[in-house]
Amino acid sequence: MNKLYLRIPAAHAAAWPDSVLAYAFCSKEGAILREGRATLTELSKDIFKSKIVLLIAAADVTLLEITVPPMPEAKLRLALPNLVEDQLMSDSGDSLLVLAPKPLNSESRNKRTVAVVRRNWLQQISSNLYSLGASYIKALPEVLCLPYLSGHC
Fold first, then answer.
1. What three-state secondary structure class fits 8?
2. Do 138 and 117 contact (CB within 8 A), yes or no?
3. DSSP label at 58?
4. CA–CA distance from 106 to each of 68, 72, 101, 109 (Å)?
5. Quick one: pLDDT band at residue 6, thresholds 50, 70, 90?
6. What is the tens place of the pLDDT at every residue in 8-39?
7. pLDDT of residue 7
8. Across the chain, which distance is largest between two alpha carbons, in Å?
9. pTM of the predicted model, to two decimals?
10. How many Cβ atoms are within 10 Å of 99's Cβ, its own excluded?
11. Beta-carbon neighbour count of residue 22 at 10 Å?
12. Which residue in 100, 105, 83 sits closest to 92, CA to CA?
């Protein structure tokens, strides 16, 4: 299945669902088939038949490094709102919290990165995409993405 990368503008600057987005439409093999700027409506045919990857603007993602207690991943995910609440200005229930994978080096095994995004804003974007026929949506903080390699997604 092809992938459609959508660069999502900062929430304060976007006028959903009519915002013009930078996009790249890529083949299964990773070759860029088409790129440019368009609205979601203009991309509806591509949205329907592609995996969607949202590149979330750095202004809309907070990255936190937290110290985690030794516990199983399932319990850690449940405890996550309590572990970050003192570092957030809003209620952790209003945010989507994503825990990064465990680091490979043994020195920082008790440190983990958490990405925080406003839940209702991301739900609004996802709802617009699902209404246009999207079946798979993945979101990545743009600040953590690797640089573009010529000709490949």
1. strand
2. no
3. G
4. 14, 17, 13, 5
5. very high
6. 988 887 677 678 899 999 988 888 889 999 99
7. 93
8. 48
9. 0.83
10. 17
11. 14
12. 83
What sign does the dihedral 140-20-121-2 (CA atoms) show? negative
Q: In which residue are the tokens 């209702």 written?
A: 120
d(C-alpha 122, C-alpha 55), whole Å: 11
Count of alpha carbons within 13 angstroms of residue 146, beta-carbon side: 4
The answer to whether the beta carbons of residues 12 and 19 sit under 8 Å apart is no
Give the Å distances, CA to CA, from 56 to 18, 70, 99, 132, 151: 17, 30, 16, 19, 22
Tell me the residue type at 129.
L
What residues contact residue 85 under an 8 Å CB cut-off, 6+ apart?
91, 92
Q: How far apart are CA 12 and CA 35, in angstroms?
A: 24
Characterize the bridge pairing of strands 50-56 and 32-38: unpaired
Is 58:8 a contact under the CB 8 Å cutoff? no
pLDDT at 133 over 80: yes
The values of phi and psi at residue 66, to 5°, are -125, 155
